[in-house]
Write a structure and sequence with these properties.
The chain is 17% helix and 43% strand. It has nine helices and 71 strands. Strands 40-41-42-43-44-45-46 form a seven-stranded antiparallel β-sheet, with no helix packed on it. The N terminus is likely disordered.
Length: 1012
């Protein structure tokens, strides 16, 4: 039994030790948007986005029926964007120039490509030539071409013209310059290698100085299997090294001796033929290889030779590798088997242990060793001298036991006092590892005020005391309404300071007095999770909402020292030697200086296992801090942990809108096409602009999709995004890096997009995109303006036509009345001059003949004719004037009828000419005639008054009135004639009539017309 247990413990220790400082791995496949069938090259642009070039796998090219294969993609850390290229030839090299632009090499072409604007410029090459990758030496860019069997080395000038540097002729039957061609420059010679001709040392003048093993490239089959060519090369501290295809050693290149010198021993060789070498911009190097389905990443150490940095024995078969990194000691991206891999190596500042364990308590065990309690996996022993960890095995009657959720340790000689959530207080003998339980109630936290007692807190029960000598449990204070989360005790005060769910509970161990303090004016959040003591600040309390307060035991007062920006609960606090507080919260570790109030927050991106620290699990050691989280233990030196300066800016990467000409959606990947940005602008000065271009959406289809990302992406960062339109409410979209508007309502908008880090703080500047969503033409202002102009023009034309008709009608009426008056005057004259004279003669003859009766009848007829004549044309106007004529008319009526007539006539003779006076006279005459004929009145009055602005004529009777509306509806000729006569004088007529009170007719003629 003991042998089996020993074997188990050894295996368990090995497994646990292997878990230390694990790397971070993540994969991206076709399901994530990787569309390139075979990736041949990787490169970062200056904004940190990863570019992938490739094409169809040659082995599968005949099986893939794709007329437009994807050969170029950009990866922003979250999604892939496919970029259109001038042709569909496979891309086998992307080389970044000093200015950030790319040289892109395809099977048959060479392009200059701007990754910001996605603009291609084709570089002229000789016809039917083959081309190598692009190389750099002394700030110049070189490319190798061929002419039959001649190898030509060219400089690519800034104006994109190729200038031949030198050439040499190979001594083989055929060559093919391509991606496998290697160019290794030195001061005096250049090493050029290819799988079609031997390794050649050639001077900068083109003189071939030496070839290595040229026989290997002869046509004999058995020799061809042994040919040597450089499969990869790298630099270490200025020294060049090479790996030969199908040879397992690493060779040092000696340019003076023009030799390849093997440097690795047989037991330290690279067995794989599938490998890739790489130098990062900082001078770091790596070799990635695969052998028997095992992945290896190695470096060349000065004294140790090849050193394995990472290996995965279950990686699986690999076809080929491409790798890129900004800092190979930190992380790397590599591809194989149509999969993009990201690997982040462990931080050299933060040592992580037990990454899959929840840490609960930490205490010193012995020199350089510390005892660690996990939530469910028992205890572990950490050695800070070599950063190793192994299980601390506990036995119960010989069987292995794993205490759970131990919150505190008290180590005294060969005894460890702690707790187990299921069993209460536990005692462990360090010599035998046997455990003893003293069960009473689940323990949450503990302190050790004396060598014979342990005071512990519970949830909803009591503050308890355990006597380690008598092994008895004693209640101190009933706390059934409280949850006690932490306890502090100092010998000088001899008080238990308990952090509870409702404030601070104090218990005097001497007097047994207790009290609960939670003044809301001093303690913003009484839900306290932890307590600590600081020599200067005293008792410190950390709350659930991230507030740290001090508690003065004498004054019983609280004072707030720190409020967490994220309101993250406080788990533990450590104090370094520079008076900084390291606040371990539920969302990151915060470095806080109480004096300067300077704050820095650290998280997973800085190398920690998890952002959520766990209570009770923090310890300051001689070598650094130990901080436990819900996923792993972290060991670091606070002096070495520095905040990362985040220079990331949010930029647009992809904007999709509807193209009305092509009747389809068009996509722009130009980062400068729309947004005002602080990014590096590689365009000529004349083309640069800081103004944001408006995104215009056509009215036919107002859909808009915007893809964006932060520059310098990091897949381990926890970033969130939000947006708003025109300063409205923010819309959170999580880690989604795109926004889609299916149908944006017509109008002008300003779209603002923000990036937030894991702590909720804004990253960089906001991305501002002006948007103009067009409305349908019949809803636009100019359309309304045109319609308004047209309608106004029509209305104006109709008004003009109406006015013209009115003037014509008025003119016709005036002419008609004038004709009537003229005709009346003629008839009146004829009656007077002809008929009247004839009747006068007849009357005289009858009088002479004595025929009195007939003579009197003739006289009556003569008088009637005279009366008719005067009615047809009142010549009295010329004789008496207008006012006199009206008075005479009324006098005659008064004399000839039974009506009582009253008149009040002002003198208006000098205001009107003869025709105008006739209209007024006719108006009065017509009204009087209507009264006589229709009104059945007993009296009427006529008033003509000169008022301030008008001449008013009022005719009023007490007869039977009539309905004016019916008369107007029936087009009464009399009314129309009266109205027309006054209208000719620019006046108006109003008629008020009632069947009980008679009729009042009023005419108002303006002075302006009368004076005119």
């Amino acid at each position: 039994m003991r042998i089996i247990l020993l074997v188990y413990l050894i295996c368990y220790c090995c497994v646990c030790h292997a878990q230390n400082n694990e790397v971070y791995l993540k994969q991206f496949t076709q399901q994530d948007g990787l569309e390139i069938d075979n990736v041949n090259t990787l490169e970062f642009d200056q904004n940190g986005f990863l570019w992938l070039g490739g094409g169809v796998n040659p082995a599968r090219s005949k099986l893939i029926a794709n007329a437009n294969p994807t050969i170029l993609q950009r990866f922003n850390g979250n999604s892939f964007h496919t970029i259109s290229t001038p042709d569909d030839s496979n891309i086998f090299d992307i080389y970044k120039r000093k200015d950030g632009q790319f040289y892109i090499v395809t099977d048959s072409s060479l392009y200059l490509f701007d990754p910001i604007t996605t603009k291609f410029i084709k570089i002229h090459l000789p016809i039917h030539t083959k081309i190598s990758s692009v190389f750099e030496y002394q700030d110049k860019n070189y490319v190798i071409t061929q002419n039959n069997l001649e190898v030509i080395v060219n400089i690519i000038h800034p104006d994109l013209k190729l200038e031949e540097t030198f050439r040499f002729t190979t001594k083989v039957n055929r060559i093919k310059i391509d991606k496998k061609t290697q160019f290794i420059p030195f001061e005096d010679v250049v090493v050029i290698s290819d799988d079609n001709f031997p390794i050649t040392f050639v001077t900068w003048e083109g003189d071939v100085v030496k070839t290595i093993d040229p026989k290997g490239f002869e046509n004999e089959r058995e020799l061809a299997l042994r040919k040597k060519w450089i499969d990869g090369h790298f630099q270490v501290n200025g020294q060049h090294y090479a790996l030969l295809y199908n040879y397992h050693q690493v060779y040092r290149i000696d340019p003076k001796a023009m030799e390849l010198i093997p440097i690795t021993a047989t037991e330290n060789q690279i067995l794989s033929t599938i490998l890739k070498t790489y130098n990062d911009p900082k001078g770091g190097h790596t070799i990635i290889s695969s052998y028997n389905d095992q992945l290896s990443i190695q470096t060349l150490h000065k004294t140790k030779g090849l050193t394995t940095v990472y290996e995965d024995k279950k990686f699986g078969p690999a076809s080929s590798f491409e790798i890129v990194s900004k800092d190979i000691q930190r992380d790397a991206w590599f591809t194989t088997n149509n999969t993009l891999h990201y690997i982040k190596f462990p931080s050299d500042i933060v040592t992580t242990l037990l990454p899959d364990k929840e840490i609960r308590a930490i205490t010193p065990f012995s020199e350089k060793k510390h005892l660690i309690a996990t939530e469910k996996d028992g205890w572990q022993l950490f050695n800070s001298s070599n950063n190793t960890i192994k299980p601390y095995t506990i036995l119960e009657q010989g069987d292995v036991l794993k205490p759970s959720s131990s919150r505190n340790f008290f180590i005294e000689g060969s005894t460890i006092w702690s707790n187990d959530t299921a069993g209460g207080i536990i005692e462990v003998d360090t010599l035998t590892r046997e455990i003893q339980y003293y069960r009473h109630y689940p323990v949450i936290c503990m302190v050790r005020p004396t060598d014979s007692t342990i005071v512990y807190g519970t949830k909803g029960y009591n503050l308890m005391e355990f006597n380690t000598h008598k092994k008895t449990h004693t209640p101190l204070v009933a706390t059934d309404s409280l949850e006690i989360y932490d306890l502090e005790w100092r010998k000088a005060d001899n008080h238990i300071i308990a952090s509870t769910s409702k404030g601070v509970l104090t218990y005097d161990l001497s007097s047994k007095e207790h009290a609960l303090y939670n003044d809301p004016t001093q303690l913003p959040d009484p839900f306290l999770l932890m307590g600590e003591y600081h020599p200067e600040y005293g008792y410190i309390q950390g709350s659930r909402s991230g507030i740290i307060t001090t508690f003065d035991l004498e004054t019983k007062e609280f004072k707030t020292l720190y409020e967490d920006d994220l309101q993250a609960g406080i788990a533990t606090i450590l104090f370094d030697d520079q008076d900084n507080w390291w606040i371990n919260t539920f969302n990151g570790i915060v470095s806080f200086n109480p004096a300067s109030k300077q704050i820095h927050r650290f998280s997973v991106k800085d190398g920690f296992t998890n952002n959520e620290a766990n209570r009770y699990s923090a310890l300051k050691t001689e070598d650094g801090f130990l901080v436990g989280t819900i996923q792993g233990l972290n060991f670091f030196d606070p002096e070495k942990l520095q905040p990362e300066i985040n220079t990331a800016q949010i930029v647009p990467l992809r904007i999709s809108t509807y193209n009305t000409q092509d009747k389809k959606y068009s996509v722009s990947h130009n980062q400068f096409a729309f947004a005002k940005s602080s990014l590096r602008d590689s365009r000529p000065l004349g083309e640069q602009s800081g103004k944001a271009k408006t995104i215009t959406l056509p009215s036919e289809n107002r859909a808009l999709e915007i893809g964006f990302a932060l520059t310098q992406p990091d897949v381990t960062r926890n970033e969130r995004y939000r947006y708003r339109l025109d300063d409205k409410e923010w819309v959170s979209i999580g880690n989604t890096q795109s926004i889609r508007f299916p149908n944006l309502a017509a109008g002008n908008y300003l779209l603002e997009i923000e990036a937030l880090d894991f702590s909720g703080k804004k990253i960089g500047d906001s991305l501002l995109l002006p948007i103009y969503s067009k409305d349908f033409f019949y809803k636009t202002w100019w359309f309304f303006l045109i319609i308004t102009v047209i309608i106004s023009s029509i209305l104006f034309w109709m008004l003009r036509q109406q006015q013209l008709r009115k003037r014509l009608q008025e003119s016709f009426s005036q002419d008609l009345m004038q004709s009537q008056e003229e005709e009346r005057a003629r008839i009146a004259k004829d009656l007077h001059d002809s008929v009247g004279q004839q009747l006068t003669l007849i009357k005289q003859k009858l009088q002479k003949q004595g025929k009195t009766t007939i003579s009197e009848l003739t006289h009556k007829a003569l008088e009637e004719i005279r009366h008719i004549s005067r009615g047809l044309y009142p010549t009295i106007i010329k004789q008496l004037g207008l006012s006199g004529s009206i008075e005479q008319l009324l006098y005659d009526v008064d004399e000839q009828t039974d009506l009582f007539v009253s008149a009040d006539i002002d003198d208006i003779d000098d205001l009107f000419d003869e025709n105008e006076a006739l209209h007024i006279y006719r108006f009065v005459q017509e009204n009087v005639s209507n009264i006589i004929k229709h009104a059945f009145a007993k009296a009427f009055s006529v008033t003509v008054q000169k008022e301030k602005n008008t001449i008013q004529i009022t005719i009023k009777d007490n007869g039977k009135g009539f309905k004016v509306s019916e008369k107007q509806k029936n087009h009464s000729l009399g009314l129309k004639t009266m109205e027309e006569r006054i209208r000719i004088l620019a006046g108006i007529v109003t008629i008020e009539s009632s069947q009980t009170s008679g009729t009042v007719t009023t005419a108002q003629i303006p002075h302006s017309y009368a004076k005119k």
